[in-house]
Amino acid sequence: MAVGGFDNPNNGDPNKDYPGAITFYVLVTCIIAAMGGLIFGYDIGISGGVTSMAPFLQKFFPSVYRKEALDESTNQYFWPELINAAAQNIAMLIIGRILLGIGVGFANQAVPLYLSEMAPYKLRGSLNVVFQLCITIGILIANVVNYLTSKMEGGYGWRVSLGGAAVPALFIVVSSLFLPNTPNSMLEKNQPEKARAMLKRIRGVSDKEIEAEFKDILAASEASKAVKHPWRNIKNRQYRPQLIMSILIPFFQQFTGINVIMFYAPQLFKTIGFGDNASLLSALITGGINVLATIVSIYGTDKWGRRFLFLGGWNSNVHISVSGDVTDLPKWYAGLVVFFICVYVAAFAWSWGPLGWLVPSEIFPLEIRSAAQSITVSVNMFFTFIVAQLFLTMLCHMKFGLFIFFAFFVLLMTLFVYFFLPETKNIPIEEMTCVWKSHWFWRRFMPEDRPQI
Questions:
Q1: Which residue intervals of 189-305 are DSSP H helices?
Q2: In whole angstroms, what is the distance from residue 141 CA to residue 146 CA?
Q3: Where in the sequence is the signal peptide annotated (predicted)?
Q4: Measured between alpha carbons, how far is 254 from 263 in angstroms, rounded to an integer?
Q5: Which residues pair with 6 in a beta bridge?
Q6: DSSP 154
Q7: H-type helices in 302-451, by residue range?
Q8: Contact 258, 347 (CB under 8 A)
């Protein structure tokens, strides 16, 4: 029995071991694909900094200022950034943000699945977490840009910040044209020979050595083609564990409260007594911590396992969440709050940050994979919106109680992981059914044999 009362998921098929190692080709391909996270991260990081710049508030929110003194996804990234940079009124700004949101949705749906299908199963976690690393790098770059553009004279620094994302977006647009389809996608398009050749290339082994993996992917593809209505089938009993995970994992990820820090970091640092430049500099520090801690996850996710990192992040998250009242703080205490914010960001960056994208992308069978990932992204984006919109109102009414509110959810999600999330490391993506069959709770939903669809 494994920790938490789980059977070892490898007992489902102990002899399944696909040969292959990481090749230069698959490494470059996965890095380029993962760079779709750069714009997502840049957008997260740029928002808080821009909305703390006086010229931006004067132009678009004058009353507030006086009172408070993959192909499709990459195209949907490029043009919105130019629209935002050139915005002359609120309507233009909103249109740009809506188009950008469409691009973010496309990328977040496609990139994690692409990485999970391309990567060798023993390194799937590390390569998939590169997507989250790119998100954190995007946030860090945004913090650097905000810090520099806030010093620009003429009041147009916010335009440079918003339009700056067009540079990496253009690179991603061009590089995405050279990305290959995954073997799974090629089989879906009835291209078995191309799929076999691609699998051989990305695994770096002989035809004979890829035979077992190719047969499993082919079988999954045939089952997928038999499903005419994945959105209807995903409600079937045998998919109940995956459906619940596709909803609860992104929900819990947002209720760690992380986007409160990422969206409002400059404003939060202002609240505890830092000036404009100091608040942006503090946000820059947290962005750097975010990147470094994500590298820990890249190293550990396939070595220590997903559950270990999930459970290892909860203590730090709760600690900062209950550190709460930030009114009239002395400098030493303000510095202590910044320290604990960094601890909190680090804990999220090696746990719920990357794993909130990784685990959903690897647990779905092919026949419902796209539909289920769409649910994951939709839930994630919906609760990102809810938390961002309600945070300031809740903070005004609940004060430090808001952070206790998030601490409660961190505790709840930790218990959920401990009791209900099986370990998925070192399990081939097409053999993931075995983790549910060997789980003490989810096994009741799983048929003994693959259902006839």
A1: 192-203, 207-226, 230-233, 240-254, 258-271, 276-300
A2: 9
A3: none
A4: 12
A5: 2
A6: T
A7: 306-312, 314-321, 331-350, 352-363, 369-398, 401-420, 433-437
A8: no
Range in 36-45, 280-289, 311-320, 435-444 with the lowest mean pLDDT: 311-320
3-class secondary-structure state, position 2: strand
User: Matching CATH topology for 1-16+233-453 and 20-179?
Assistant: yes
Residue in 394, 443, 449, 20 with CA at minimum distance from that of residue 198: 20
Residue 163, φ and ψ in degrees, nearest 5: -80, -15
CATH top-level class for 20-179?
mainly alpha
Written as six digits, the tokens of 318 are 């709760």
Q: Taking 50 as the threshold, does the pLDDT of residue 74 lie above it?
A: no
CA distance 99 to 73: 10
CA–CA dist 412, 159 (Å, integer): 41
- Cα dist. 377→81, 108, 125, 431 in Å? 21, 6, 19, 23
Closest-CA residue to 429 (of 108, 135, 183, 180): 183
Residue 357 near residue 116, CB atoms below 8 Å:
no
CATH code that applies to domain 1-16+233-453: 1.20.1250.20
Q: Where are the domains of the chain?
A: 1-16+233-453, 20-179, 185-226
Helix, coil or strand: residue 311: helix
Cα gap 210→286, rounded to integer Å? 44
- For residue 374, give both structure tokens: 């769409």
Give the span between the Cα atoms of 96 and 177, in whole angstroms. 24
- Condensed to tens digits (0 to 9), the pLDDT of residues 399-429 reads 777 778 888 898 999 999 999 999 999 898 8
Helical segments of 61-123, H only: 62-68, 71-85, 90-118
Higher-confidence residue of 329 and 236: namely: 236
| pLDDT value of residue 280 | 65
Task: Give the burial class of 76: count Cβ atoms within 10 A of its Cβ; 0-12 exposed, 13-18 middle, 19 or more buried.
Answer: buried
Q: How far apart are CA 444 and CA 67, in angstroms?
A: 58
Find where tokens 């950008």 sit: 100
> Does pTM top 0.85 for this prediction?
no
